[in-house]
Amino acid sequence: MTESDKGFFGKFGGRYVAEVLRRPIEELEEAFHKCMKDSDFLKELEEIRTDFIGRPTPLYHAKRLSEQLGGAQIYVKLEGLANTGAHKINNAIGQALVAKRMGKTRIIAETGAGQHGVATAAACAKLGLKCRVYMGEVDVRRQQPNVSTMEMYGAEVVPVTTGSRILKDAINEAMRDWAANFSDTHYLIGSALGPSPFPDMVREFQAVIGRETKQQMAERGKKIDAMVACVGGGSNSIGFFEPFINETEPLLFGAEAGGIGPGKGNNASRMVGNDAVDGIMQGFKTRFLQDEDGQAGQTRSISAGLDYVGIGPQLAYLGETGRIKFEAIKDDEALNAVSVFAKTEGVLFAMESAHAGALALKLAPKMRKDQNIVVNMSGRGDKDIFITCPVFRPEEWKVFLQAELERLNAGKDIHFAASMAKNN
Asked: With a threshold of 0.90, does the pTM exceed it?
């Protein structure tokens, strides 16, 4: 497996944590490396990937769309068909298994779009672990379907009301919880960031995406010319790119959240533009969007999962060295990609993944017809109905919500259903 150099990727990464967390992090690092060499652990992980996650996920040739664009052939890695609807389950199961081997009984996590929270809750339900998920109050409001799902799996969802009330604030709260309860608790970080060894752990558990993709294209006798993934913190992209990081081919492209356009506070773009600076925050060094006082800056994106002030340290390094080329995709471009892939191929991208889809729509016409692009559809778009429906069918959505509100206010069927659930 590809590892950091003592926790660093060039100048990025590291382990900048309070003294109280040094021992639990060192214990975690030791346990992780031990598990990755343990045949029994790897066998159990592989069985869960097959029977519970549903791996391998399909690689789908978007023939109609490729023909319409008139350029490269587009293939889509359908991570949205994994159990819980996104790639996040790969890492959640891996880390939860490590934690259980360590004797931990409680898992905490942060989540933005909610998919990592859902995956962690499902993993904990399967493995018999207690689960608490911290989620920014803003994200709780816009991702209610995922909040409900987490609670169905038995997780406690804690809305975070400090700061900007989004992903970065959820991470801060989870860090505080871990510092106070590390004896029985594991902090299951969902993205390829945080203090070492988390970037290495997340990349390794997500690398199954890229390794499957490489094998699936080879079985078809196809060369991969370009790979495209969305990049927030970076869990799906670093796993997707992992088998190719140290090669010169294929070309690797990362789609950041361009929000409503350039300018501080209008987007969440760290590698494109000049708004981000090198800094240390939340236990590691990378490129962060910061304000004049060096604090976490304001971000904006239609996608909760990409709305983060920083980027995984390995991705920052690969961007600075030129191995990954980054482009900022605006909200309207991502929405257009959702519509195009849905209507042309019957594939519904999550808003995060749609940023990658939008970039593929730009790249394909500039490439030859005998070339191939693979896009990582990191998640399914079901969770985004509260975002997409007001855009694509606003009047009908208003009528639906009003009718639901009237039904809830009337209390019909609600008390009966609640009493039935309680009795069962």
From this structure: yes
